[in-house]
Amino acid sequence: MEKLQKCLECGAAWAAGQTCEDHFHQMLFWEAENPRYGAEVHHLLVLCYYLQHPSLYSPAGLSEAQRLLVEFVERETSPGEVRQRNRARVDSSQRHWKIKGTAASHGSYDRPMPWPMTAADVVAGGAESYCDNVRAWARAVNETLKTVR
Ligand SMILES: [Zn+2]
Predict the structure, then answer these.
(1) CA nearest 112: which of 80, 82, 148?
(2) 13 closest CA partner among 1, 28, 25, 23
(3) pLDDT in tens, 1-60
(4) What pLDDT shows up at residue 79?
(5) Quick check: 91 pLDDT over 70?
(6) How many angstroms separate the alpha carbon of residue 104 from the centre of ligand 1?
(7) How far apart are the CA of 22 and the centre of ligand 1, in A?
(8) How many angstroms does the Cα of residue 74 sit away from the middle of ligand 1?
(9) DSSP states of 128-141 as a string?
(10) More confident residue, 112 or 3
């Protein structure tokens, strides 16, 4: 009998041995193949994937990511605008906090998050629907974060 494996961070079932990281790499591959995809939704892909795997962030990185997702999803700010506006805030030379989590200090939620959509769903939608699905994923992640905030 095959053991059902599950992601400890986002809770997604790993069907056929495909982990969330495998799905993340599949999406990066589609972006590399279709540069337009990357230009449109790469910033959302990274935010969604990392927000659903919060230990990849430092605690401060996790709250910054949540703030950024609200900017993108609710205010439809473009990545370029955010970069410009945040230059002073998040410029690495002036940054007082680290974005990446470490074993000793990383982001987490105080309860399991009921994500309606994960990386596996975006990959299941195929390359043709990739951009639409990443946008839907970003809205879903933002809604879930709001309900537990
Ligand atoms: Zn996962």
Answers:
(1) 148
(2) 23
(3) 556 689 999 999 998 889 999 999 999 999 999 999 999 999 999 999 999 999 999 999
(4) 86
(5) no
(6) 20
(7) 10
(8) 24
(9) TTHHHHHHHHHHHH
(10) 112
Centroid of ligand 1 to alpha carbon of 85 (angstroms): 31
Q: What is the mean pLDDT of the chain?
A: 90
Question: Phi/psi at 118 (nearest 5 deg)?
Answer: -130, 180
Beta pairing partners, 14: 5
Question: Closest Cα to residue 44, out of 21, 76, 92?
Answer: 76
* pLDDT value for 78: 87
Ligand 1 centroid, distance to 93 Cα (angstroms): 31
Residue type, 109: Y
Under 8 Å between Cβ of 86 and 43: no
Ligand 1 centroid distance, CA of 20 (Å): 5
